[in-house]
Amino acid sequence: MKKFPFQKSNHSLAPQFDEVIQQLKESKDFTIFMFGIEHDTLCISYFNTLIDTDILHRDLLPYLNKSSSTLEAAVSALPIENLLFTQKPADMQKHLLTGYISITMEGKKDQAVLVKADSQKSRTVSLPEVEFSVIGPKESLVESLDTNLNLIRKRLPIQELKVEELTVGKLSKSRVAVLHIDGICNKKNVSTVIQRISNLDVKQIIDSSYISQMIVDKKNTPFPQFIDTERPDRLAAVLGEGKLVILVDGAPHGLLGPATLVEFFTASEDYFLNWTMASFFRLVRFFAVLFSILITPIYVAILTYHYELLPKNLINTLVISRSGIPFPPILEALVLELVIELLREAGARLPTKVGQTIGIVGGIVIGTASVEAGLTSNVLLIIVALSALASFTTPVYQMGNTIRLIRFPFLLMAYYIGILGVAISFCFMLIHLLRITTLGRPYLEPLYPPKLHSLKDSLIRLPFSLLSKRPAPKQKD
Amino acid sequence: MRIKTIVLSSIMSLFLSGCMDIEPTVLNEINIATAVSYDYIDKDHFTSTAVIPYYMPDKKVNNVTFTATASLSKDVRQKMNQQTDKPIYSGKIEVILYSKELAKHDLTRMTDTLIRDPSVGNTVYLAIVDGKAEDVLIKQLGNVDKGTYLSNAIEHNIQSGILPKTNLHLFSYAQNAEGMDPFLPIIKPKNGNPLITGVALFNQGEFVYQTKEHENVIFKMLVEQSSNKEGFSAKLGEKLFASVYNIASKVSYNIPEPMTNSPIIINLNIEAVLREFTGDKVDKKEIRKIEKKMENVLKKRAEKLIVKLQKLDVDPLGVGEQVRTRTRSWDKKEWEKLYPNIPFQVNVKLNILESGAVE
Asked: How much is the pLDDT for B355?
């Protein structure tokens, strides 16, 4: 394994401040200069790419006492609240790399003062783009952990909101924060999550999705087990339900868990609308998911094996639409599903403006042309397009991807043994779902095991007056 | 270990799939028969005709008929397949027609194969053709396939016409029930157009009697626990006609002493709307009069019909079933002896709810 220079310095017995500075000087963006006139010159060093030079020029240099003989005296007039005195060179090195300015005194090289001056370069809080809702708050998380914590804390101004911070990644040294409300959240879950995160042995954590993939209970499943959201209001709301939230510095998405299956189909808009509408839309969403998974396999199964199931008035339409098509229904369906996947993939990779063109080209030109050329039946085209549309109704993006994927085994089984195959695949999916746990809790809760009082906010959402109790009561620690 | 099991089981299922006898029937690669008819030739042979709709790309439907002669209906399909471009499947058959001639020689043998075949639905309509069954199928009517046409025709006559509810399931139920005999609608080909004329009554599987026009409505009212929408008219006097439109009728049996010779009372409650009346002004008194007179007419018709059924020794009304549910000492043979001689009394209660918008 390749060793990095800063690791090497840990091994040498007593690395001096000089040595550290010599190593850091190898980088072009490391600045070091002397300040003062006499023999007690101050040595100021920092990475100019990491610090905010405004702080240096405005708050630091004018207030330094150039004529004092000790380091304490020199920095005593600084208008900065948190000065760090350190005698460990390793400490100095670590802080210099995260945006601190170090001040040492020529001649007295056993002590350094570290001043926090990191530049807070990040996006401003903007509109949520993935989980947009017409009504409700319009703030979304940004890449800066501190801003994100601020967005959540200002929604929950209570002392019970606890934030635990960990550093993960040998290279990225990412800050990962685990949030929970003391007394509501299950302590076992918090300690499990913290332990799993601190046990991670990885080089880099680029995004929160890394964490969510690495700390789940069951890794070999297409079903996501942490909800990935960019809405701070949603995070604050679920913290109040006793869930925990994981934020990663540099990731504009927070994770919340333990999340059960039905929660992946709840949108935050469900709570902004009246309960009647919210319940209706939720039911529509569940219907859309089932429709999206099952309709193409059922079409293939019926057309291949079960012509008896068709209503007598529908046979005419279907036979005409299928007449002259040279492929069996399964091939036709697979090709069309793949076309939709191609369009989606192309649309996702291309810049927004070109992406729209792709949608039009794919949807209208390819669709119409292939029907006119007699390669696909127009009924199947409608079915595939509808099922694609239905899969996009899921509020959590990752769940939408899952639904698009699990349709394919259903399709193949439908081709293989008809409706029986669809039923068998459905049983497999159900068994798989029953076996998944998220942080030890069953994934299908509250449907199975049935929890009557949690059902009030699952497939439907009852009015707030009936939702005064938390959906998942605190488990015994 | 786990991976080994998964790999093994998937390989095994691949090979074992060869043992599955699932035959793909891709919709546009098969011929779907929608109606079949059977005609009598001699004791062991019959002719069968199947209608297969060919759906044209311009949304037109062409009915093509195939005919074959054989001794068992499965053989017939083989002979028909020898004439067609695609194999014929029977899963979407809507209507099965038997000629009257064939029905006189026990239908049980013919319906047995339908009940055994799981692809033939239980709600298939069976019908008897007064004449040559094939004639009903040959002429194309409108832009629908012939099977759908006939099944729609029977269906709407069941919902709002003279036919009591009937299908393969009810037919075979009545055939196998101990105190009941089946009936089927009867169709007459008239210049190639089907005309539903009434009901054919069976003794077990043998055709016995065909109802006359004036018997149809009262037959439906007596057979069905509750029926509606059919209309009937009656001559009440010299130049006096009344016609009512039935909203709801209910039949109930009162059997004080089952399995004896004592009379069986049938109560018929009818609620109706006056549709046509050739008399003078209609007021409450007049309506009472019409009710009384029509009740008498209906009572006579019903009792006459029942006596006729008793004479023919058939029981399409299921009186035997009614008796069987009311007694512990049911004996089929004894009932068969009793049935022709039991006196029936029909009490009709007609309630005219409104007499129309005429002042």
From this structure: 79
